[in-house]
Amino acid sequence: MRIIDFFMNHNKKIQENPPEITTEWQELPAFIETDPAEYELVSVLATAIAAGDHPESEFVV
Question: Does residue 46 lie in a domain region?
Fold first, then answer.
């Protein structure tokens, strides 16, 4: 068996058995009410999520 044949047959096996896709995501409303005492925590969490991978960004309370 040539090495090229091995990879060609390997790719066919992968294509014949595609994985079953399941979704575990749950849709959330655009706004979720929170207790006014927790506004600061919610703001920090939302900012951290929105900032993503931007280490140069800042959030000051």
Answer: yes
